[in-house]
């Protein structure tokens, strides 16, 4: 049995991961902007705004001394309505970077004592293939840029935490039928979450610093 912390766990992939990990007998810590958003009564619920230093610090204080085996940084936003390379909502772009890049890093840094207290802990960030430099597609520029940036940040984390035996990975969940992905997406949230769990089950320090799709395919940065 592992202790697993998931951010953005009130809906979509985060909520489904919480359901599946709980059903498998693990202790799940669900984090979200407000506990009023918790909905289903599963896991242990804590308020967390990943863009707020004080909120992140409060979570770390609440969990102080508690080993955490796996942190899944899932909280994220799609970004502003206007986000092309020729027309950009710049405040919206900055907000997207704060949530999707700085947010996961804030959480991981704050919980490093908990991760180091566990045996062979793991860290995952829910990223997207839309941030891969192997693709020259455009559209949703703020979102794409934020995912490219968080991939690099977590690649660096993998290097910096390898000596601690903490494995780090970035994950592409696929195009999933969630509020963010929309009803026309081609992957059920249950299948995406199950695939993510399978990838993380096989994650060890020898595979740290890589970028995987939910189906186990290793992706180009």
Task: Outline the structure in words.
The protein is an alpha/beta fold and 221 residues long. The chain has one domain: 3-Layer(aba) Sandwich (Rossmann fold). Helices cover 38% and strands 15% of the residues. It contains six helices and seven strands. It has a seven-stranded parallel β-sheet, sandwiched between helices. α1 (12-23) crosses α6. The longest helix is centred in the middle third of the chain and has 21 residues, at 90-110. The model has no long low-confidence stretch (mean pLDDT 94).
Largest sheet: 7 strands, parallel
Task: Average the pLDDT over all residues and give the rounded result.
Answer: 94
CATH topology: Rossmann fold
Rg on CA atoms, Å: 16 Å
Label this structure with key terms.
221 residues, alpha/beta, Rossmann fold, seven-stranded parallel β-sheet, 7 strands, 15% strand
Describe the structure concisely.
This protein is of the alpha/beta class and 221 residues long. It has a single domain, classed as 3-Layer(aba) Sandwich (Rossmann fold). It contains six helices and seven strands, in the order βαββαβααβαβαβ.
Compile the SSE list and pairings.
Blueprint: E1 3-7, H1 12-23, E2 27-32, E3 44-47, H2 53-62, E4 70-73, H3 90-110, H4 112-117, E5 122-126, H5 141-161, E6 167-172, H6 189-201, E7 210-213
Parallel strand pairs: 1-2, 1-4, 2-3, 4-5, 5-6, 6-7
